[in-house]
Description:
Elements: H1 20-44, E1 51-58, H2 62-75, E2 79-86, H3 88-96, E3 103-105, H4 109-117, E4 127-132, E5 134-139, E6 160-163, H5 169-180, H6 184-187, E7 191-194, H7 197-205, E8 211-215, E9 226-230, E10 240-246, H8 253-264, H9 266-274
Parallel strand pairs: 1-2, 1-3, 6-7, 6-8
Antiparallel strand pairs: 3-10, 4-10, 5-8, 5-9
Amino acid sequence: MPKCRGVPTPDGRPRVGVSLPPLRRRFLRCMSWILVLASAVCAGAPAACAQELTLSVAISMKEAVEGIGRLLVQSRSGVRLHYNFGGSGELQKQIEAGAPVDIFVSAADRQMDELDRKGLVLRGSRRTFARNALSVVVPADTRLMISQAHDLVQPQVQRIAIGNPKTVPAGQYAEASLRTLGLRDAVRERLVYGENVRQVLEYVVRGEVEAGFVYVTDLTARPGSVEEAFRPPRNSYAPVTYPVAVVAGSRHPALAEAFISLLLSREGQDILARFGFLPPTERR
C-alpha cells in the first residue's frame, strides 16, 4: 500500500514544498485503498457487516415466521434476524417505550391501529398477511365430555384458560365469543389468564385447567398433548387477522419491506398454510 504523504499540517496549511494538486491525488489514492480494505473486511467477515433486523412477533406466529425468516436469510447474504416473541399487547407497549424494533407482527388489528395512530409504524408499510380461528382445547387424556361451548358450564369444568384480554388478542377474541354466546358471567369465576396464547396452551398440556381457548394453529405446536374439543362459532368473535408493518425509525426499512413482501409471496403463504394459517382474504 502506498504511504499517505503530503498530509497538511495540523492547522490545515499545506506542508512546505508540496503543491495542493498532488496532495489531492495522494489523498484520493489513500481513500481508495481504505475503501478496498473495508470491502475486503466485509467480504472476509460478513458477520461484522451484517444487516440485522429485530422482529417483534405475536407468539402464535413463532414457527411460521421463523420458517419464512430462514428463506430471507438464505436469499440474502449477511442478514441476521433477531426475534422477540410475546403477546401482541406487550410487544406494542415495548415499541411505544422505544424498543429498537424493525418489524411488528400482531395477532390483531387493535394493537397495530394504536401504534399507527401514534405514528410509530412506517406509513404505507402495513399489510394483512394471514387469518386464523379460535379453538377450545383439552388435555389429551381428559375424561370430560366437552364438545360445544355450553359444556364449559358443567360443574366438572373448574378452570378455563384464556389469554389476558388486556394484552392478548386471543383472550380478547375468547372473551368476545363467551359474551356473544351468553356464557361470560357463567364462567367468570373459572377463568385463568395467561400472558400469551402459548402459556394458555401450556396450562392445558400440564392439566392445570380443564380447557383453554387458543388458535387452531396452536395445535401444531404440541401435537399429541392436547385435543381440540370444539371451535367457537366464527360469528361469535371478530375475524382473527394478522397485520404486519415496518416500525418507524427502523434502521433497515428496505430490508424490512423485503421481509413483508416474502410474507405475502407464494413461498411465504405456503409456509403459513403448512402451519394452518388461512390466506389474508377469504377465497370464494
